[in-house]
Amino acid sequence: MTGWIVLFAYIALFTLGYFVVRLAKWLGRPNRDFTSLKTVTFGDESAIRPDRAASFISVLVIFLIWGAFTGSKWVPFHVPGPFTGDAVFSYTAQDASGARDEGTVTVRVHEVGLDADDPEVEPGDGFAKNDVDTVGAWRSTLIRATSNDEGEEVNVVAVEGQPIAPGETVKVPDGEVTMTAKGSLNFQPAKGLQMEPIWMPPPEDVLKRFKEIATEGYQNFTLWQHLGSSLMRVLAGFFLGSIVGIPLGYAMGLSGWFRGWFDPIVEFMRPVPPLALIPLVIIWFGIWETGKIVLLFLAALWVMTIAARAGVSGVNISKVHAAYSLGASKRQLLMHVILPNSLPEIFTGARVAMGVCWGTVVAAELVAAQKGAGMMIIAASKFQLTDIVLMGIILIGIIGYGIDILMRLAERFLVPWKGRV
Amino acid sequence: MDGLHIENISMRFDLPNGTSVQALKNVSMDIKTGEMVSILGPSGCGKTTLLNIVAGFLAPTEGAVKLGEKAVAGPGPERGMVFQKGALFEWMSVRKNVEFGPRMKGMPKAERDKITDHLLETVGLQDFKEKAVYELSGGMQQRVALARCLANEPDVILMDEPLGALDALTREKMQGLVLKLWKETGKTVILITHSVEEALLLGERLIVMAPRPGRIHKEYQLPFAERGVNADLREVKKSEGFQETRDEILSMIWEMEEEIMGRSEDAA
């Protein structure tokens, strides 16, 4: 239910944002650059520029929805939360003689994590005595309404005037009541549309948890040790994969024997996801650092091999002929032509490999690790510490994005001719 | 025995479908040192194949290429190449491109710089020394390619449609430059081109090749290159005999093209 509402709210905000920004642009100073004069934009990729306002609103909307559906204090409006306070419903009991009497059940619904006293209620007249109970919001409680009633074989036959039998549910104000097979009443207070913190904590909880872990650490290691060890594994695996994969790729691009020999291996290993290798790697290399670095090595190896091979194949034959005609030896050709010419491909491969490695290291740490970003998430999930899980996911995303930005900067610096030849 | 000698070259290779192609048949020519020869012909006449054999990138099935007394067995610095495009090294500056050959030989920097400075001035790029080659226009890139080839002091320069990718105006300017460089350096040049006009303007000798199998169809001795060294190329085109020779060669090539079309229509 909540999921559909979130989806519709998201679509509504997407549409609303579009019209609001269009209106703002129409009211503001018109854009008069060359692209703005193109009449054909649908199908002309070069005329499509990302609308930065859309990017900004997109991020804002995520936080708005997150806050609104989790009762965040940062967000001024919320969807209805769970019911709290005293919920009352009546029940009708029948004894062995067939006589009927009405009693009430008063349930004090309180915030989870706080204690509450039973509400004070008069026992009432007749043989059906009034009952009281407490329950946390989003939880449910089992009430044996007839336990304090007088008389033989007293059974509940109706709730709020509506007949009820075992297995049936009756809606009452502020919640619903289901009768169990043994005749007890299970009261579930109304949940509202907000999500429970153990499913989805509000953003401020995640930030609070981040500050706490950043200063105090988590599971014997500081946050920086967790993230640093993941990063070190990625760098080690990527480095090893590159120093084996790139020469192998070059060899495959330069020698028919190498290409014939390694083609089946590379083409076979490439579609095998590194995650599928985790069990074997653990069996062979154990669950410690060696195993993880071997796994990341394998994750980076094939990507880098294929990138280097493509880099060699991509060299314009005129360049090779020109170099030989200028008197270059094979070694000189390799160093001054093949190698620099393959750099753009190598960079593309390195970006892919980094992404794969970063994803794989988190997954490998989910399986077994003492420290690491993935380990943090999996350990927290075992204690239902959803805020740590979310924090971990956000940090992993930020670091992965950061790596890619750095790689792109390095690429622009080292391969300025890319895409301009 | 000075000069470049192409001795009775034939080239035949098998195709995957079992048939074979006779790309060249009994091609012979002797080119004197310092001579500029242009080769012309319809597509598929084997002119690029011939050039690749002379450069040493391909081995003929029969015959041999000799530079002086030495048989050609592979690419070498004594035979420089200028390609249509895409042969410059984008990761090097203009200067590094030009000095590539000498640098590979291990020539000291001071000497290299002298050669590079001189050549870049000759081709009019002295102000672009440290520029990246991808920042230059197509015409400028070909100037760099010419300078790079000359920096290596080859005996023979092989040009494979060096001006083919340029616009008409730039092309005209570059034709003048090629003539000037040829006269100044006295190198032997083999020029392959699609343009009849260019072949006439630049070649002292013009060889028309015919296709299937690739062979020499006709040879001309031409006065236009010599005239062009000291005159405006547009004047050379108006000079005596130019238009007539041009028309003759054009109709010759047209006939060959039509014959090819006819033959393929018969086959179909």
UniProtKB/TrEMBL annotation, chain A:
The chain crosses the membrane at residues 6-24, 234-256, 268-287, 293-312, 385-403. Pfam families: BPD_transp_1 (PF00528). The keyword Transport applies. Its main location: membrane. It is a multi-pass membrane protein. Keywords: Cell membrane, Membrane, Transmembrane, Transmembrane helix, Transport. It is found in: Cell membrane. Belongs to the binding-protein-dependent transport system permease family. PANTHER family: ALKANE SULFONATE ABC TRANSPORTER-RELATED, MEMBRANE SUBUNIT, TAURINE TRANSPORT SYSTEM PERMEASE PROTEIN TAUC. Probably part of an ABC transporter complex. Probably responsible for the translocation of the substrate across the membrane. This is Taurine ABC transporter permease. It comes from Pseudooceanicola antarcticus.
UniProtKB/TrEMBL annotation, chain B:
Pfam families: ABC_tran (PF00005). SUPFAM superfamilies: P-loop containing nucleoside triphosphate hydrolases (SSF52540). Keywords: ATP-binding, Cell inner membrane, Cell membrane, Membrane, Nucleotide-binding, Translocase, Transport. Gene3D superfamilies: P-loop containing nucleotide triphosphate hydrolases. PANTHER family: TAURINE IMPORT ATP-BINDING PROTEIN TAUB, TAURINE IMPORT ATP-BINDING PROTEIN-RELATED. Belongs to the ABC transporter superfamily. This is ABC transporter ATP-binding protein.
